[in-house]
Amino acid sequence: MTPTDGSSSESGPDVREVDLVVLGAGPGGEAIASGAAAAGLEVVVVDRHLVGGECPYYGCIPSKMMVRAADALAEAGRVPQLAGDATVVPSWAPVHARIRDEATTDWDDSVAVDRLVDAGATVHHGIGRLAGTGRVTVELPDGSAGPTYEARRGVVLNVGTRPAAPPVEGLADTPYWTNREAVRTETVPGSLVVLGGGPIGSEMAQTFARFGSRVTVVQHGERLLGGDEPEASAVLAEVFAHEGIRVMTGAELTRASYADGTFTLTLGTGDELTADQLLVAAGRTPNLDDVGLETVGLDPTARTVETDERMRAGERLWAIGDITGKGAYTHVSMYQSAVALADVTGAEHAPARYHAVPHTTFTDPEVGGVGLTEQAARDAGLRVRVGTTPLEASSRGFTHGPGARGVIKLVEDADRGVLVGATAAGPAGGEILGLLALAVHAEVPVETLRTMIYAYPTFHRAIETALGELA
Ligand SMILES: Cc1cc2nc3c(=O)[nH]c(=O)nc-3n(C[C@H](O)[C@H](O)[C@H](O)COP(=O)(O)OP(=O)(O)OC[C@H]3O[C@@H](n4cnc5c(N)ncnc54)[C@H](O)[C@@H]3O)c2cc1C
Ligand SMILES: NC(=O)c1ccc[n+]([C@@H]2O[C@H](COP(=O)([O-])OP(=O)(O)OC[C@H]3O[C@@H](n4cnc5c(N)ncnc54)[C@H](O)[C@@H]3O)[C@@H](O)[C@H]2O)c1
């Protein structure tokens, strides 16, 4: 099928039959669309914004370019302790240029669209909505009705999330940033308040602080990275304090206003903060409220769409990505995409399992985690043993010197003798995590992990020490 912008004709709605409609094209949606088209199916993709979704344009990729630059500055700052003198004058210009030119082609998805078209798919920019089983309507960018599709095999829902706007008085009237504005900025604010100390807030707070911004994190919860192990949060809080980032925990923003280039932010305690910019990173809202879920018997007010182990969410309906609530990560979206593609095309595939979902927050130290935290394992009723060791106490940590803070924590199901969760916080924590993710995924017996030889002096060798601490 050739690309088309389609429209209703005067003789009535333009209804077209195809094999598969991918509604929302995040990373997983893009992948399943090209996979299904390569398998010979007639595929239509509908995306209201940029094909590829949040990750390449506003999420993972631009934010990791920012982190990379900030880490380079931090490493330069460690030279005096390690290797003499280094003078660095931070400049945001190369960061912005890499994001604009290399990562996002100035927030233009033509390359992604062309890739899909070359694979044989039809792509619409527009709002897609379910209109009953296997049926999708398209509203074109100018507000006119596009074609309606009847999908013989069905519909893949991959509509993702948008930044949540917390109900703070006055906030909507201020020019606050979300991740979308933060990755597009051409300048670094002199001072920045970050609302939210989750992965987005933590990565961005440290990045802008390393580029010279005076940063305050206002965090509702009791600690940074509340979904991770408390030991990892503690390490990060120490590093943030050392780098001059103020972290206010248990703090609630109640009022926001903006005048003459300054944000004034009132906290529940009555305390007032002022800053040049406010970045709201307080979670995500699923794009499920305007996608016609009610037409297929699903709840449009739900935060997630329930799926089975084949990613089926209903009759001729699959759901993948953040909306499934199995981990808002690109790798989960891609994993689910492969499972759903196999189901759509009738190929063999192992059913989806989530016992070993890994994640890494790319702060410095990186915080990697897989499977259950100690608390989650206890809440699940497991008999738990944990082993913990500081990374800087390892031989590699000692030789590394500045910037070696970190922790390895292992969570064992003592009855089965396997790891059900693990954390690797430290330099390259996300890379150390690889070994642990394999152990949790493959349920490698702890006794087998103890017989392994761990290269000396690597960071991952600290896993052996943590195994020795399991108690
Ligand atoms: C700042 C930031 C950093 C991140 N860093 C990482 C990271 O390092 N590693 C990682 O694994 N994950 C990271 N993530 C998360 C990652 O971006 C998401 O998990 C990933 O994009 C997968 O999301 P998704 O496929 O569910 O949908 P999304 O990427 O949100 O894509 C959904 C698509 O659906 C479209 N859409 C929505 N509604 C409609 C509709 N009605 N009709 C048509 N189209 C519609 C949207 O325009 C969008 O293109 C980060 C996220 C953010 C915000
Ligand atoms: N490296 C990565 O893999 C990566 C990076 C960024 C984002 N992500 C994904 O994107 C998701 C969204 O990230 P996020 O950081 O926005 O969400 P989050 O839900 O993980 O964290 C939001 C934080 O904001 C706090 N918060 C919420 N409302 C608040 C308020 N009114 N005042 C103060 N604090 C408030 C919460 O306590 C929480 O700690 C993550 O869960 C993750 O799955 C992944």
From TrEMBL:
Keywords: FAD, Flavoprotein
Residues annotated as domain FAD/NAD(P)-binding: 19-335
SUPFAM superfamilies listed in its UniProt record: FAD/NAD(P)-binding domain, FAD/NAD-linked reductases, dimerisation (C-terminal) domain
Transmembrane region(s): none
Cofactor: FAD
InterPro entries attached to this UniProt entry: FAD/NAD-bd_sf (IPR036188), FAD/NAD-binding_dom (IPR023753), FAD/NAD-linked_Rdtase_dimer_sf (IPR016156), Pyr_nuc-diS_OxRdtase (IPR001100), Pyr_nucl-diS_OxRdtase_dimer (IPR004099)
Coiled-coil ranges (or none): none
Superkingdom of origin: Bacteria
Residue stretches making up the Pyridine nucleotide-disulphide oxidoreductase dimerisation domain: 357-466
Family stated for the protein in its record: Belongs to the class-I pyridine nucleotide-disulfide oxidoreductase family.
Protein name: NAD(P)/FAD-dependent oxidoreductase
Originating organism: Nocardioides lentus
